[in-house]
Amino acid sequence: MEFTLNIFTLNCWGIPVVSKNRKERIEAIATYLQTASHNIVCLQEVWCERDYLYLKDQLQKQFPFSHYFYSGVFGSGLCIFTKWAIQDVFFHQWPLNGYIHKIHHGDWFGGKGVGLCRIKYNDRLINIYCTHLHAEYHEDDIYLAHRVLQAYSTAELVNLTSSPADVSILAGDLNAAPGDLSFRLITQLPSLLDPYTLLGDHDQFAKQIGTSDNINNSYSDQKLVKLCPEGKRIDHILFNVDSKYEAQVNSYGNPMEERVPGEPFSYSDHDAVALELKIKPSQSKPKRQYSVEKHFQETIEEAIKVCREATVLLASGPITL
């Protein structure tokens, strides 16, 4: 019997004191979700527990089940809301999470990682993974090795825990665009599909799909907008279905307006992503694909090279502020 999943993800940019219009934006996000058709919601950068509790209270009717992944000093910033019962939860904190002396970046104190909620919908099990990889911050990207190891750790977790789930969904801010090393690790090891590649006409959606620093977001860096008006697609919803099912992408993209209604600002400094999947029994019986493709070996070798170069750099001297 077929069923439909409607997943929503958003980096909420909810840093106390630092994030502009945080209170108004959190309230607007709650208002949007109260009337939207999503049945699974994954949020990142909900750093203030008060904001999570506010969202939980406001969304109790639409999403009676939720979980916040506490971690580190400030919390992981990750939470999941769902219409269906959460059967199990698990959080994996990454062993490499930025540098403690980079206080203004804050990743180390957040204890970031990947959270898993296993949801039971009738007789089906759905794994929902929510995550937020380390940002670049600078052009020289001293955190590349951190992000690569976080991506591999996340990919391993998905690969090892996806069974016995019928559907596995990974949603969040990966700080990696398609083709980037981190993105390839996450999609190749557990064989996660990018819905964008399943759309009919890629060019038709190209300028609407950038989720960070695009021309339509009020908080975008104008220098980056001039260089690339469509922005970067670094927020994703990836999926995999068991071989006894097949999935059809009904819709994919940013479901929210460019501005909070009645306000001059956007919902966040990132754009949201929503995916509607139609899941139905498969007519054929294909074998599930794991990381057997020969190009995955090339990806692993590239990741090892990045980590070795980072180790040499650390050995040469201290990382400055």
UniProtKB/TrEMBL annotation:
Q: Does the keyword Metal-binding apply?
A: yes
Topology with respect to the bilayer = Multi-pass membrane protein
Q: Does the keyword Ribonucleoprotein apply?
A: no
- Top enzyme class, one word, equals hydrolase
Please indicate which superkingdom the organism of origin belongs to: Eukaryota
Q: Could you cite one Gene Ontology molecular function of this protein?
A: metal ion binding
Q: Where in the cell is it found?
A: Membrane
Residue ranges occupied by any Endonuclease/exonuclease/phosphatase domain in the UniProt entry: 9-270
EC number of the protein: 3.1.4.12
Tell me the SUPFAM superfamilies matching this sequence. Answer: DNase I-like
* InterPro entries documented for this protein: Endo/exonu/phosph_ase_sf (IPR036691), Endo/exonuclease/phosphatase (IPR005135), Sph/SMPD2-like (IPR038772)
GO CC annotation, single: membrane
Which keywords does this chain's UniProt record carry? Hydrolase, Lipid metabolism, Magnesium, Membrane, Metal-binding, Sphingolipid metabolism, Transmembrane, Transmembrane helix
Family matches, as Pfam families = Exo_endo_phos
An annotated GO BP: sphingolipid metabolic process
Q: Which family does it belong to?
A: Belongs to the neutral sphingomyelinase family.
Q: What is this protein called?
A: sphingomyelin phosphodiesterase
Organism, by scientific name, is Danaus plexippus plexippus
